[in-house]
Structures are given as structure tokens and as C-alpha cells.
Design a protein that fits this description.
heterotrimer; A mainly alpha (about 270); B alpha/beta (about 325); C mainly alpha (about 280); A: about 270 residues; mainly alpha; 11 helices; about 0% strand; globular; C: about 280 residues
Chain lengths: ~270, ~325, ~280
């Protein structure tokens, strides 16, 4: 057991070491990513500011009862998650389709290592790291401005809920990517998911009731950004925090079970 | 390695083209069972090199995938290195390897060495052991600085050698090779072949190999399995395969003067007639009698009996897809 | 390759029409094969609906219409974002990706040998894809009105007649802009990444996430110096039946096309020269 953990840890180090080596060749890409991040963040902040009354000079409750700095916390969490998906999720999960299409999934399945681990952690892209940093800074800075006290308990809770939202995002994405075993072109479905997740830029209460239900129960956007942001602001309720963990655990188990199921299909039907 | 009555039947969805067809298919699925492999049994001893032959679509790849555990058999069972392949236990996975000539596992943008290090970690080799094995394999394959050049800058032959290294780093006891020399030039083919012989000698590994190049098979495999239409058609020495494939022999005659074509019909099948040079195909059982009669009844200057070349026979089989 | 405008126009025109018809018909047949993906593509343009949610909640809840500086009713807001959705659907451009794929796969060289500017091929592909999208867009719009019956209104025939050329011109501007980036593929194999940068001002200034009326006056003035507000906002306003300066907007669009068209042609010629000099 212990040796197995060591083997996985060593493998992960090798995975990411090789991934970084491969990407240093493209400094230009890194520059473009940086510019894109700055542009996107500026644009998002600008659009957000539109809701806070350019005429009335910062009317307190522009979006669903969230003040300007509070809404910026949500945007910070969104930026952070976007950075995580550029760093870890997109580079790995978008490759699953290619593995299925080109038949190189066979190589992965023949390795004495968990195939979901291989497919989910095979590579890492440093391009999203600045976005993670900026997202964290925005989240905490805006939180302080909103008057929250960032003590150890708050920070620990924030960390746990961020982890849980990352896992939800990962599991959702992996579930979609898994369907590539049957439908080769799932890339478009991923785009739909990404487009819908853009809703996480704003607190969930900023939406009309119908959309709010949709974004909580069907597509858990609320758990992705609003719940961690509430934690930063020190006002997340116990049930919501627990629900977030529950949703994360549920989606994670579901993604695992679904992958196993899909593999059974793959190994009994592929030619 | 043992296969007992191995079979695989695919369920093929009968779907009409178009959106309507898709919907109808969704509502009321109709399937057809298409057998890809039927009742294949054989035993391969440790250390053997066996060639796996058959025309495209004969079931070679399906059988290979069942033996590597990538697909479940729908009938029969297999045992490889003491394991049931489709359970895909760790012990099994570290005991085998699969090389596919048309697919690659090396990371395209990086030198092969990086991919090798990843594999070393995955198979739990420590650094010094990995280095020793890499050096050993590199020496056998005559790879040097190529290992530190990005894969995309390697020639096809170098790439294949590096693929072999990645596939063999964990020193598998059983090698499955699916068209390992596909697309390589003659020299590179010969080198890969030589390497496989060396590797088999050094490690005593079992090798099951498919190839379209007869030279691979004749040079490497004393024993061949021939699969056709999903069924095992022949299992034995390569040399004796010709008897199964061609139950007749070729007789070449040099005559004193040209004769009309009808003259030869009583003796066998006329294959070619070029003035006084004649080629006949005569069934094996009638050979002695036919030759005696030919010598007695016709003005024969020279007579030569030969086996049709094995390459030609198998080539014919592959082209026509029918067994003679 | 080096065709100038021909002297004898009539036969040339007939030839052009024939090529256009054949290209469009084959591309349409090709796109129909991919209708499932195209439906998903259409669905991935949900952003205007999400933004409508935020804007309408802000309108009823917080500052009120005056505070937001919109000057739009709920129904008008809903129609605006539906218009933005439709305008986006028919101005989506993906020539960068198609071009890059073709040049990597080596399909470009044969195209360059044909007596037809290869970009026309992509234009035809885009138009065919839009035709494939049309039914999905109609369904989504119908569902939208079912969900928001209060916002239901069809544009007047005059407005529709204006909106169509507006959308086509918006598509032309977007296509030319992205073609410029695609042509950079002749110089750098990663030119595609630049598209990410072009997309950012497009996203925020085109009116996809907010009607330009909501912008502070300074930002709005700057935005109207770029082609972006004409690419979504203007056609959306036409479709929604909102008040909008029609003549000057069309003039601005024509100006942008007049600027971008020769620029693209020049860049293309330079790119092909480089391509042939490099020997493919």
C-alpha cells in the first residue's frame, strides 16, 4: 500500500516534469496567455462594474444583494477556478477524446496504473498559474475590502470549499469526456459546459428564481463559485458547506463509476 | 500462453443513415451478431516466437486484444503468463507488453528519454535500475543521442526503436507485436528483426507477432498461426504450411518442340506455355505417376519439380482472401 | 493565381456564380453530416441568455432601470439578448481553426493550385454551416418566447429587411478580421493563439454581455471607434426593434469592410509569397 502511494507520487512527478519540459518551448504562448488573462479579468470587472451604478456612485446592492467588493470575491473565485482548469483540467481532459480516436487509449489501459489517474493527471500546463495567483489575490483582497476577518478557521473552510468546487468541476468535465468512448466528438459538449459555467462569474442570487434552481440543482454552478465566496465572506452556512462536500463526493464517485462502466463498454466493444 | 476456444462476437447496431434512422435506432435497437473470432485454441510455450498470419479483417487484432486483456472474449478463455488477461491485474500488466506499429505511446514533442522516465515510474523501477535498462536496450538497438532528440525529429525507424524501448523497459515476459515494422525501410526492418531475436535469446521472452512482411515471419518465426475468417486455419511449422496452402506442386518442362495446349490436359493444370517451355501444376498425390507419364509420352528434354514459394502462396491468400 | 479584375465581366460572373453554387451545395451536404455537433455549437452560445438573467434580475431588484442607465424595459431587454444570441449564431467564425488544420494536414497546397482564392472555400463553408444552424436557432428562439411570453414580438418586415444585411455585414467584418489572423499562420505556426486575444475585446465590446447603452459614455465612445459594437450590438438592436442610428451604423460597417478587405487581400498575397518561398 505504502509503496503503491510512493509509485503514484513518483509517477505524478514524472508526468508533470515532462509536461513542463514540453511547454517551455512555447514562451510566446505563455505571453499570450498572460495577456488573455489580463484582458479577460479587466473585461469581467468592467461588466461587473456596470451593475454598480456608474451614475449613482456605487449603490450598495447591485447584484442579488451583494456589494461591489463582495461580488468581486465571486469573480476572484471564478478566475481561480478558470486558472485551475487551464492548468490541470483542460490539458488532460481534452486529450481523452484524442486517445479514443487514435486508439492510444490501449497503451494507457495496458499500464499497471489506474487509468483515470493517468488520464486526469498526465500533464500540467503552467499557463494557468498566473490566473490562479491573480484569482486568489482578487478573492482575498476583495474579501478584506468587504470587511471579512481572514482568520485560520475561515481560511481552512475556504480551502476545503475551493477544493470541493475544483473536484465538482473536474468530475463534471470528466463525466462529459468519458462519453467520448461512445460519441467521438464530445468536444462540442464540453464547449456547452464551459459556456454554461460562465454563469459562475456572478453570485447565484443575481439570477432570477428559475435560473437559480437550474444552477444549483442541475448544473452546480452555485457550489463552484458562490459557496466558496460566501466562505471568504465568513457567512457560509453549515448546510451549504456540507452540501458542497456532498455534491463533490457524489460527482467524484459518479465520474469513477461511469468511467468503469464506459471502460467495460470499450473493452467489450472496441475493435 | 494458452487460448481455449477463444471467441469474440461483436454486436453491430443496425442503424439506418440519417436523423430518422438515428431516432428509430434509439427507440428500437436492432442488432446483428457478427463473429470476429471463433473457437481459436493454441498453446505457446515460454520463449517461443510465433508468427500470427492472416489477411486483413481475419481476426488477428481482435485475438491480440483478447490476449492483452483490452477486450473481453465472448467465448472461451485465455491464460497469459499465468493470468486471465481481461482481469487486467497489475501482475499481468507488468508481465506483458504491446507494440503497435501504427500507434505510438511516446510523447511527440519531447525526447524519448522523457517518455522512458515516465514509464519507469509507472512500472515502479528505481532510477538506477531504469538507467541500467535504458543503457542496455539503447545498446542493443544502437540508439544514442537520438534519445535526447524530440520524437517528432526522429526518422520512422528511430521512432520505432524508441517505441520498442518504451515497451520493453519493464522487461515483460510476453511480447505482443502488431505490425512492428509497418512502413519501415528494408534496413530498419532487418534491424528490428535482429533485435527481437536478440531480445528473445537474452530474456527468454515469449513473442507473438503479426506482420504483413513475409520476411519478418520467415526470419523470426519457426512456428506460425494462420487465422482466416476468424478461425484458426493452421498451427505449425512455417515450412509445412505450403502443403496445407498448396496441395499441388509445380512441374517445369523443357520440350524438344512446341506442342499445342490440349496436349497437357491429361497430366495436370497448365499454368503457362511459352513455346517449348511449359509449367504445369500437378496435385501432390498424382505427382509421381504424372511425371512418369510425362517422361514416357512426351519429348521431354528437362524436367524440374518444385514447391511454389511460400511468400507467393500467402501473398495470394492475403490478396484474394480465400484459402486455396 | 494572380488574377486581376477581368475585362470581360459577364463570362467571369457566370463562372463565379457556378462555383459559388457548387461550393455552397457541397458544403451544405457536408455540414448536414455534422448537424449533431452544430446543434451543440448553437447551444454553446448561451452566454446572452445567462447575461439576460443577470441583467433582468438587476433591473427588477437593485438599482432599477434608471440606476443601470439602460433605458430598456424588461421585455425590450429580453428581446435585445435574444437578438444578440441570433446575431452571434450567424456571425460565428472559425476560419482560423479550419485554416490551421488544413495547412497542417497539407491540404493547402492543392487549394493554392486551383484558380480560386482559397478563402472563398471557407466563406462557403461558413454560410453552409449557418444554414445548418438555422433550424436549431429557430427552435431555441421559439422556446425562449414560450418561456418569456411577455417579451414576444416579431421584428417588423422593414426591420427584418435591415437586420439581414446587417448580420451579413457583421459576419463579413468578423470573417475578415479572423482571416487576417489565419493568414499569420503562414509566418507563425501558433498564430491561432492570437485569436484568443481578438476574442476578448469582441466579447466585452460587441454587446454580447451587456447592451452598449449600459456603458459609461467614455467607454461607449471608445467602443464605437472599434468594429466590435457593429458585430453583435447593432444587428441585435435591429432585431429587437430598439432605437438605433441606422444609416450611420451601416456606413460605419461599410467603412470597416472597405478597410479590411484590401488589407486581407494584401496580407494573403504576402503570405502566399512567403509560403511558396519556403517551399511549403
Amino acid at each position: 500500500m505504502a509503496s503503491d502511494w510512493r509509485r503514484y507520487a513518483r509517477t505524478l512527478r514524472r508526468f508533470w516534469g515532462t509536461a513542463l519540459a514540453g511547454q517551455l518551448e512555447y514562451q510566446l504562448n505563455l505571453l499570450i496567455e498572460l495577456l488573455a488573462m489580463v484582458g479577460n479579468l479587466a473585461g469581467s470587472l468592467f461588466v461587473l462594474s456596470l451593475f454598480y451604478g456608474n451614475s449613482s456612485g456605487g449603490a450598495g446592492t447591485g447584484l442579488g444583494g451583494w456589494s461591489w467588493p463582495e461580488a468581486m470575491v465571486v469573480l476572484g473565485v471564478y478566475t481561480l477556478l478558470d486558472g485551475v482548469s487551464s492548468t490541470l483540467l483542460r490539458p488532460n481532459l481534452s486529450r481523452i477524446v484524442t486517445h479514443v480516436q487514435e486508439g492510444t487509449l490501449d497503451f494507457v489501459l495496458l499500464k499497471p496504473i489506474d487509468s483515470q489517474f493517468w488520464l486526469s493527471a498526465r500533464t500540467v500546463s503552467p499557463a494557468g498559474l498566473p490566473e490562479i495567483a491573480v484569482g486568489l489575490a482578487l478573492m482575498l483582497g476583495a474579501g478584506l475590502k468587504a470587511g471579512t476577518r481572514l482568520d485560520a478557521t475561515t481560511l481552512a473552510l475556504v480551502a476545503v470549499l475551493l477544493l470541493s468546487s475544483t473536484l465538482i468541476l473536474y468530475a463534471l468535465w470528466f463525466l462529459l469526456a468519458t462519453t467520448s468512448i461512445w460519441f467521438v466528438k464530445t468536444w462540442n459538449a464540453t464547449e456547452v459546459l464551459r459556456a454554461a459555467l460562465a454563469a459562475g462569474r456572478y453570485p447565484i442570487t443575481a439570477y432570477p428564481a428559475g435560473l437559480r434552481t437550474l444552477f444549483t440543482l442541475v448544473l452546480p454552478v452555485a457550489f463552484l463559485t458562490t459557496v466558496p465566496a460566501e466562505a471568504v465572506l465568513g457567512r457560509v452556512s453549515g448546510p451549504w458547506a456540507l452540501a458542497s462536500l456532498g455534491v463533490a463526493a457524489g460527482f467524484l464517485l459518479l465520474s469513477r463509476a461511469f468511467w468503469r462502466f464506459a471502460l467495460r463498454f470499450y473493452t467489450s466493444a472496441s475493435s | 500462453m494458452v487460448a481455449r476456444g477463444l471467441g469474440k462476437t461483436y454486436r453491430v447496431a443496425d442503424k439506418q443513415p440519417g436523423l430518422g434512422g438515428t431516432l428509430r435506432h434509439f427507440l428500437r435497437r436492432r442488432h446483428r451478431d457478427v463473429p470476429a473470432v471463433t473457437d481459436v485454441s493454441f498453446t505457446i510455450q515460454p520463449g517461443e516466437i510465433v508468427g500470427f498470419l492472416g489477411p486483413n479483417g481475419a481476426g488477428k487484432t481482435t485475438t491480440l486484444k483478447m490476449l492483452t486483456g483490452l477486450i473481453h472474449p465472448t467465448a472461451g478463455s485465455a491464460t497469459v503468463a499465468g493470468y486471465t488477461p481481461h482481469r487486467r491485474q497489475r501482475g499481468f500488466l507488468t508481465a506483458i507488453t504491446l507494440v503497435m506499429g501504427q500507434k505510438q505511446q511516446l510523447i511527440w514533442d519531447l525526447p524519448p528519454l522523457d517518455s522512458l522516465r515516465v514509464n519507469a515510474a509507472v512500472y515502479g523501477l528505481d532510477d538506477s535500475e531504469a538507467k541500467r535498462r535504458i543503457d542496455e536496450l539503447a545498446e542493443m538497438l544502437e540508439l544514442g543521442e537520438e534519445l535526447t532528440r524530440p520524437v517528432r525529429k526522429l526518422s520512422l525507424g528511430q521512432r520505432m526503436k524508441a517505441e520498442l524501448m518504451a515497451a520493453l523497459l519493464h522487461r515483460p515476459a510476453v511480447l505482443f507485436l502488431d505490425e512492428p515494422s509497418l512502413g519501415l525501410d528494408v534496413n530498419a526492418q532487418a534491424r528490428v528483426r535482429q533485435f527481437l531475436v536478440d531480445y528473445n535469446r537474452r530474456t527468454g521472452a515469449t513473442v507473438l507477432l503479426t506482420s504483413h512482411y513475409m520476411a519478418d515471419i520467415t526470419a523470426l518465426c519457426p512456428r506460425v498461426l494462420l487465422i482466416h475468417g476468424g478461425r484458426l486455419f493452421y498451427d505449425g511449422r512455417l515450412a509445412r504450411l505450403s502443403e496445407r496452402l498448396a496441395p499441388w506442386r509445380q512441374v517445369r518442362l523443357e520440350l524438344a518442340q512446341p506442342l499445342p495446349a490440349e496436349t497437357f490436359h491429361p497430366y495436370g493444370e497448365l499454368e503457362s506455355l511459352d513455346g517449348a517451355a511449359v509449367r504445369l501444376l500437378i496435385p501432390r498425390q498424382q505427382l509421381t505417376e504424372a511425371v512418369a507419364r510425362l517422361l514416357n509420352e512426351l519429348p521431354v528434354l528437362d524436367l524440374e519439380v518444385s514447391d511454389p514459394p511460400i511468400e507467393e502462396l500467402i501473398g495470394r491468400l492475403f490478396r484474394k482472401g480465400v484459402v486455396a | 493565381m494572380n488574377r486581376r479584375w477581368p475585362r470581360a465581366l459577364a463570362p467571369e460572373l457566370a463562372r463565379g456564380l457556378r462555383i459559388a453554387r457548387v461550393l455552397l451545395v457541397t458544403q451544405y451536404a457536408y455540414m448536414l453530416e455534422y448537424r449533431a455537433e452544430i446543434a451543440l455549437w448553437a447551444l454553446s452560445g448561451v452566454l446572452p441568455f445567462i447575461m439576460l438573467g443577470v441583467w433582468s434580475a438587476a433591473l427588477t431588484g437593485g438599482g432599477g432601470a434608471a440606476g443601470l442607465g439602460l433605458g430598456l424595459s424588461q421585455a425590450e431587454l429580453a428581446r435585445y439578448f435574444l437578438g444578440a444570441f441570433i446575431a452571434r449564431q450567424f456571425t460565428v467564425v472559425w476560419v482560423v481553426w479550419a485554416f490551421e488544420e488544413d495547412s497542417v494536414a497539407g491540404r493547402l497546397s492543392p487549394y493554392l493550385l486551383q484558380p480560386l482564392q482559397p478563402l472563398w472555400r471557407y466563406v462557403a463553408a461558413h454560410l453552409a454551416e449557418q444554414a445548418t444552424r438555422l433550424p436549431f436557432v429557430v427552435v431555441i428562439a421559439a422556446l425562449f418566447f414560450l418561456q418569456q411570453p411577455a417579451a414576444f414580438a416579431l421584428p417588423s418586415p422593414a426591420r427584418l429587411l435591415l437586420a439581414l444585411p446587417a448580420i451579413w455585414m457583421a459576419f463579413a467584418i468578423h470573417f475578415l478580421l479572423q482571416s487576417l489572423i489565419a493568414i499569420l499562420c503562414f509566418w507563425s505556426e501558433r498564430a491561432q493563439a492570437l485569436e484568443r486575444l481578438l476574442f476578448i475585446p469582441y466579447l466585452f465590446l460587441s454587446g454580447l454581455v451587456a447592451p452598449l447603452a449600459a456603458f459609461p459614455p467614455g467607454v461607449r465612445q471608445v467602443a464605437f471607434l472599434t468594429p466590435f459594437p457593429y458585430m453583435i450590438g447593432f444587428p441585435a438592436q435591429l432585431l429587437a426593434g430598439l432605437e438605433v442610428p441606422i444609416a450611420s451604423s451601416f456606413a460605419a460597417m461599410a467603412g470597416w469592410i472597405a478597410l479590411l478587405l484590401p488589407l486581407t487581400a494584401l496580407a494573403w498575397r504576402a503570405g502566399v509569397r512567403r509560403y511558396t518561398a519556403m517551399g511549403g
